[in-house]
Structures are given as structure tokens and as C-alpha cells.
Amino acid sequence: MAIDSRVVARVAHLARLQVDDGESEALSERLNDILGMVDQLQQADVGEVEPLAHPLEVSQPLRDDQVDEPDVRDKVLPLAPASEDGCFLVPRVIE
Amino acid sequence: MSSSLFNGWEVVIGLEVHVQLATRSKIFSGASTATGDEPNRHASLIDLGMPGTLPVVNKEAIRNAVRFGLAINAEIGRRSVFERKNYFYPDLPKGYQTTQLAEPIVGAGEVVIRLEDGTEKTVRIHHAHLEEDAGKSLHEDFHGQTGIDLNRAGTPLIEIVSEPDMGNAEEAVAFARQLHAIVTSLGICDGDMSQGNMRFDVNISVRRPGEPLGTRTETKNLNSFRFMEKAIKLEVERQIDVLEDGGKIVQETRLYNGDTNTARSMRTKEDANDYRYFPCPDLLPVLVSEEDIEALRAEMPELPDARKARFMDAYQLSDYDADLLAASIATARYFETAADHGGDAKLAANWVMGDLAAKLNAEDLDIAHCPVPAEHLGQLIQRIKDGTISSKIAKQVFEACWAGDGSPDQIIESRGLKQMSDSGELEKIIDQIIADSPAQVEDYRGADEAKRKKKIGFFVGQVMKATQGKANPQQVNQLLQEKLTP
Chain A contacts of B138, Cβ < 8 Å? Predict the structure, then answer.
């Protein structure tokens, strides 16, 4: 799949990144290079190999179901641009 | 696939069900899952998506998901993998939801549903996966802005995805109820739909029989079984109308409003389906061993179907009664306690499904919050059975129990509601009434057998009035018949 500036614009939008037209061309080129490398990887025969979700040969440690996190509201709420009645405030997101 | 046609159209329904797991702490953090507290009191640094934090999986969430898998005879994912589902929304602080996709914890299984006509149907489960809940967006009270409360963010969920095996609203609701019964019996979910403990999204499409599947829509915001039924009927009608008018169904998400019984299309998010899933680098694959699975299997609680069978067998209940009483764990427990204390299962069943259910309904209460303890209903039943009070007085006592006036025995005692067992005293009262009503006595004696049965009502009424309802009606009837027959 070739990446052009339209694809770059779409991916940037999904990631909420601001990319201007000047950058777009250079980014398409670099992304195409990366995909070229992926194409090369895909030629490797992996028929006998299990899919890998994580490079470490260990599994997830689990924790007991205990409440042990402190209430940090009074520390984090002032960090937000706006808050009210204990809630973070954001621009209206409905309708 | 479908069991009935609507005007020549076949309806195809599948459900996605989000079940909040009843753990104490969140799926990836040690913050409390408690509800009803001030906003953001239970939003830890992990839940807030702060840089430098790492999630650690809650063991109990894994165990609960495995319990569900065992209950629906599913293949348990011995190895399951968490992935990131990427999208931006203010109540999702990390910018992705941690969920499962390719390797879920619960594989394919099945749920048997029972329909009103007594037939059974199997609904296949495609899979169920673990994920985290989002926070809440509050649109009221913030003068044009949106308030974000992240207390719910990170609450463990299993999302159960059914195959499109249901053909009408009744089947979908039966399936939803059965799932509710299963997860509450397992104790893995509180099951309070009004609190969003279980949330149902319904995928609906229609087609002419034999044709490929039609375009489907998804209806959300169904927080009761009744609304689910109405919303499905509404959407099926809408789709058939559109198609019969030559239109096309647009794949969209629709939001149901139970107050108005209407639904509207939610604006489709641009590129909404491009979630760019990838395995979460912060979490390792979760392994569940054979020993873990067998240990959970060994301690599985009784499931609704087994409970129903036991109720029919041990308490001699009818299929219908057993079905109703076994469906929810809270109702089942209440009934069993009342039946065991009262010594009469049929009476207990009638009370639980009758007066108690009516009262709970009227006050919109869950049986778990019933003001009359099951032991007290049992005591009431015992007093009916041993003749201390009549069924009529029992209703009065029940009302007093409901109002918090004490146990049935206390109420019967303090209000002097004991049935008159002294036949001598009763006879005196009856003799007096007969003496005071010569015209009615004449009338009675002159009537034939059939009419007498009606006319005796006058005397029964007088006796009940004189004894303030405390006489045993059978005894009164018997004594009156003896005394009135010349």
C-alpha cells in the first residue's frame, strides 16, 4: 500500500496530530520507506511460528483484588485547564 | 434462523452485552469501583492515564470472566491478550480503551433460552472479552460545557457478543434475562440495570427469507428489559417501513429514548471504525492454568437452570413458579428463606410472586432492598398455616411489617390480631347475632340449599365485624350452618 498525502492527513487526524501540507510530503516518503521494510519482513516464512504479542517469555503477574490507591482528586483537578464541582470540564461533546 | 416473519420479513438480532464485574478494585488499578461517591474520588493516576504509570491486572476480574465462560460451556482462553482500541473521547483519558480482540478470555459458548410457549432455543455466544469501562460525561449542570467524572474509568467489564441467533424481541429479551440470571447467580455482577451494571446493545437487520443478511443498525441505551423489547419492535418496524418504501438501511448507531419510545441516529463519527488495535505493550499475555480452571469449576455456584429444577423437585413448584423464582439469585434466596422459615413452599411462592412483588413494583424496589426480611415473611406464613391469623389479617400484618412496625409475631401480639380459637366465645357472638336478626334468619331458613349458601354471607359478615376479622372463617361458617339449620 502506497502512502500519499491523503493517507497521511487521515492518519494524522485519527491521532489528532497537526500536519501541514509541507510536512505531509516528507512524511509520506518516510512512511513508504517503513512500509517497504515491513513488506520485506512479510516475505519471511513464519508458518511454523506462533504469533507474538510480547517479546518477553513471561506472563502477566496478577494482583489481588484490593483497594489500595489513594484519592488524588485534590492534587490532579487543579492541573486541568478547567474544573467544577469535582469534575474536569471540557467543551461540550454531545450534539 | 428466525422463528417468525413480520409481514414477510425475517428479523435477525444479535446482542452485545457489557457486564460490569463486581470486583472491589478496578481492572488495572487499586482504585475502588464504588459508585455514588463524589466525582473523581476513585480516579487513580493509572485510571487517569498519567505518564509513567503501569497497569497491573486484577486477578478477580480474570476469575470472574473464567466463571462466566464455564457457565456457558465455552472454551476458556488459556492465554489471552490485551489490546489497545484507539479513539479520542474526553471520558477515555488514555486515548485508548484496553480491551481484548484476537485472543479473548472466553471463546465460543452457548446459552439456552426458554420462551413463553415453553419451547427452548440455543443462542450461540461468539466470544466474551475483558475490557475497562470508560468514565462518565455529564452534560447537564455545566452551562454548555461537559463535566467529566472518571470514577467509573477502569471498572472491569466483560463484553459478551452473541451470534445473530434471535428472531424477534421476545427471544432477545429472554436471552438478556437469561444472561442476567447467569451473571447474578455466579455473583460476578450486581445486575442492577438502572445503574448500568448490565448494558445491552442490540444489532438488528431484516431480510426476505433466503436472502443474504440485510444492513444492520445498532440500538443503544437500553437500561431495562421492557425498553429493550419496545426499542427492538420500534426499530424492526422502522426498517421494514424504509425498505417497503424503496429506501435503504444505513448502518448506524441509534439511541433509544424510553420516555418517548423513540430512537434517533447518533451522528456517525468520522472514521469511527478505524480503531487501530494493537497488542498493549504495557501488559503481558494473561495465562490461565488448568488448575485455576478446575478450581473455579469445582466451586461454581448453582446456576438458574439447576436451581429451577431443584425448586420443582424439592418444593413441588410448578414449572412457571419455579422459573420465576429461580431467575434471579436475590429472589431465589428470598423465596428459599421464606419457605424454609414458613414451612410451606407454595404459600411462600404465592406471597413472593404476589403481594411482595406487587409492593416492590409499586415502590420500584429491588428485592435485595425489601424492607420485610425473608425470615419475617416466613414467620407470617407460619402464622397463617397454624391458624393464628387468617389470610386476610395476614395482608394487614404484612403491610405493618413493610411499614417497619416489627416482626409479624410482634404485630399480631401488639394489635391483638390473633384469630379467635375459643369456640365458646365465638358461639356466644353468633348466638347474639342470630337473636338480633330474626328477619334474616327466617329468610335463610325459607331458602333452598343453593340460595342459603349466598344468604349465609350476611351472618358471616356480621360475625367478622363483631370480631374485627379475628374469627376463623371456616369455623364461623361451620358454626353458623349448625345453628341456622332448624
Answer: 87
A82 touches chain B (CB under 8 A): yes
Alpha-carbon distance B1 to A88, whole Å?
48
- CB pair distance less than 8 Å for A88 and B103: no
Which pLDDT score, from 0 to 100, does residue B1 have? 41
**pLDDT per position as a tens digit, B147-156:** 999 999 999 9
Task: List residues bridging with B220 in a β-sheet.
Answer: B255
Q: Considering only CB atoms, which chain A residues are within 8 Å of B102? A: 51
Work out how many domains chain A is built from and give that number. 1
Q: Which of A71, A77, A84, A95 is best to mutate for the B interface (most B CBs within 10 A)?
A: A71
Range of the structural domain that residue A27 is part of = 5-35
**pLDDT per position as a tens digit, B42-72:** 999 999 999 999 999 999 999 999 999 999 9
- The reply to whether A49 falls in a domain is no
pLDDT at B2 (0 to 100): 42
A40 in a domain, yes or no?
A: no
CA–CA dist B337, B329 (Å, integer):
12
Which residue is listed with cell 442476567?
B180
- Domain B423-484: top CATH class: mainly alpha
Cβ–Cβ gap A67/B32 under 8 Å:
yes
Is the confidence at residue B271, as pLDDT, over 70? no
Share of chain B above pLDDT 70, in %: 98
Read off the C-alpha cell for B206. Answer: 431484516
Outline where A1-95 has alpha helix (H).
Answer: 5-14, 21-42, 73-76
Cβ contacts of A59 on chain B, cutoff 8 Å: 79, 284-287
The Cα of B183 is separated from the nearest Cα of chain A by a number of Å equal to 19
Which residues 30-59 in chain B show a CB within 8 A of chain A? 30-32, 38-46, 48, 56-59
pLDDT above 50: residue B412: yes
Q: For the segment B321-345, what is each residue's pLDDT rounded down to a tens digit?
A: 998 899 888 899 999 999 999 999 9
* Cβ neighbours of B24 in A, within 8 Å: 65-67
> Can you tell me the ipTM of this complex?
0.88
In total, chain A counts a number of residues equal to 95
Task: Decide if A13 is inside a domain.
Answer: yes
Q: Give me the sheet containing B96-100, strands edge to edge.
A: B96-100, B82-86, B278-279
Residue ranges, comma separated, of all CATH 1.10.10.410 domains in chain B are 423-484
